[in-house]
Structures are given as structure tokens and as C-alpha cells.
Amino acid sequence: MATVGFIGLGVMGYPMAGHLAKKGHEVAVYDVRAERLAQWTAEFGGRRGRTPGDAAAGAEVVFTCVRNDDDVRRASFGRDGVLAGMTPGNILVDHTSASAQVTKELAAAAAAAGIGFLDGPLSGGRVGAEKGALTAMCGGDQAVFDRVRPLIDCYAQRVTLMGPVGCGQLTKMVSQICNAGILQGLAEALNFGVRAGLDMEKVLHVLSKGASQSWQMDNCGLAMCRGQFDSGFAVDLMRKDLGICLQTGDEIGARLPVTALIDQFYAQVQARGGGRWSNTSLFHLLAND
After folding, report:
1. Is 192 buried (19+), middle (13-18) or exposed (0-12) by CB count in 10 A?
2. Which of 120, 180, 251, 263 would you call most buried, defined as having the most Cβ atoms within 10 angstroms of its Cβ?
3. What separation in angstroms does the CA of 37 have from each of 27, 44, 80?
4. Which class is domain 3-164?
5. Which pTM was predicted?
6. How far apart are CA 109 and CA 116, in angstroms?
């Protein structure tokens, strides 16, 4: 059993840290929301860190799973950051979907402190986190990956080392570009079916075994048709991820015209007050035009 620090108890981090605790690992947690910390420790036990560095103190492996680049920097650097609380030879894994720039900064700081580092963004969302069925796309050294793989297995069903540091984040960008296109196509198709007067439950059942089947269709299709957007990966976070994709695309010379268009559709959802709605709310623009 390992001694673990976990920073960030959001919709994904909360159950992920819970899976580690349920597997018998000794887990210290930190979140900026005191009520979230109290809820998690009441449910799973473990130690409540006063700061990210306090949660990281004594941990063999520290996981961070926060919202964006700024949160990564706040959690990792400075007197109260995780790097200050860690000791040489331990490992830091960042599960945040972050930019290549902040990943480079974190990897360099970890290396200077003698700490192993992996970037490990995730796919599968809230449902995958709760079921312990996430996909983890990792970048880093093989030896570091091999050491932390058994821990990531506690909440992920597919864990792959994609290459050196940064390759995990690049793979997540590929994933989000795919997701944006699939969700827009699904929203258009379902809106078409609803307006045509079809029984959409039957439509989704029939299509679920055909060429148009997707994870989004199976897990989100019916909720989309019903206008239920209160759970899932938030539009604000989707726009953050697509912004990273578009910026990186510019840097490497990869054109992303459809991704840029869908990003603007999400901006329209935000303008309707839907920043915290699920990213499936592209349907709302079509159903309420």
C-alpha cells in the first residue's frame, strides 16, 4: 500500500481519490473548498491537508487534478505548493488537462527537485471517474510510469504511456478535437430526429449497434434529447480545452477549422448562461434557435 497525496476534489478528483482510499492506500487530500474536504474525509477517511504542500508531505506519489493552468501553478509552486512538500525520489502526476507550456514548467521544476513527473490527462468524465473506468494518457519516463501504474489502475481501466513528458497532453488534445466534432454531429442528428417526430429512444437503440454509434451517443444521447445538461463535462472546461487545442494547432501548423467553429458554438452556450452546463448542450442551440 502506498502513501498518496491528492490535490483537487472536483467532479473527477473526488471519486478518483476515493478509489485510492477504498483500495487501502493512505490518502491525504487537499481542495480549496473546505466543505469539499470535510465531505471527502467523512466519506473515505484519510488526512485533510491544510495546503497542497501539507497534503503532499510524506507522500510517495502526489496526484493533482485541478481546473486549468493557473490552478496547476497555484497548487504546485511556492511555499505551500506540492513541490515544496515533496522529497527527492517521489513522483508527481498531473491529471489536469493543461497546456504544453505549464507541463514543461512543472516537469522542469520537478526534475530540478529530483522528483519524478508524469503528465496524465484523462478521458471518461464524471461517469468514468465514478466507475473507476477512466482512460489515462501519460507522458514521461518508463520507469516513473511503471512505479505509478498500479495506483492509476485504481481508477482507470486503460493506462498508456504515450511517450516523453507532454505526449499525454497532446493525446488529450486529439481526444478533445474528436469529442467536439462528435458532439456537434450528434446534436445536429438528434435535433433532426426530434423535429421529425421520431421516437428518439428507439432511434438511439437502433443506432447503438451501427456505424454511427459512439460513447457520447450511448451515454448522453437520451439526456440530450430531453434537454438535460446538468451533469457532465462543463462547457467552461470544454472551451478551456479547445482553446489549448487551437493554440497548439497554431504552433505546430495543424489547421482546426471545424474545432474553431464548434468552440464558437460553445461560446454561444456560455452567452446563454450555460457555462456550467454539460458539453452536450450544443443540442440546446439547435433545439432553441
Report:
1. exposed
2. 120
3. 12, 11, 17
4. alpha beta
5. 0.93
6. 10
pLDDT means per 10 residues in the chain (289 residues)? 96 97 98 97 97 98 97 97 97 96 96 98 92 97 98 98 97 97 98 98 96 94 96 93 97 98 98 97 96
> Distance between CA atoms of 161 and 289, rounded to whole angstroms?
43
Burial bucket for residue 93 (CB in 10 Å: 0-12, 13-18, 19+): buried
C-alpha cell at 285: 442551440
For the chain, give every residue range classified as CATH 3.40.50.720: 3-164
Fold assignment, 170-287 = N-(1-d-carboxylethyl)-l-norvaline Dehydrogenase; domain 2 (1.10.1040)
Give the separation between CA 256 and CA 238, rounded to whole angstroms: 15
C-alpha cell at 66: 485541478
Based on the residue annotation, tell me whether 104 is a catalytic residue of this protein. no
Q: At what angle do helices 100-112 and 69-76 cross, to 10 degrees?
A: 10
Catalytic: which of 22, 131, 172, 202? 172
CB 73 within 8 A of CB 41: no
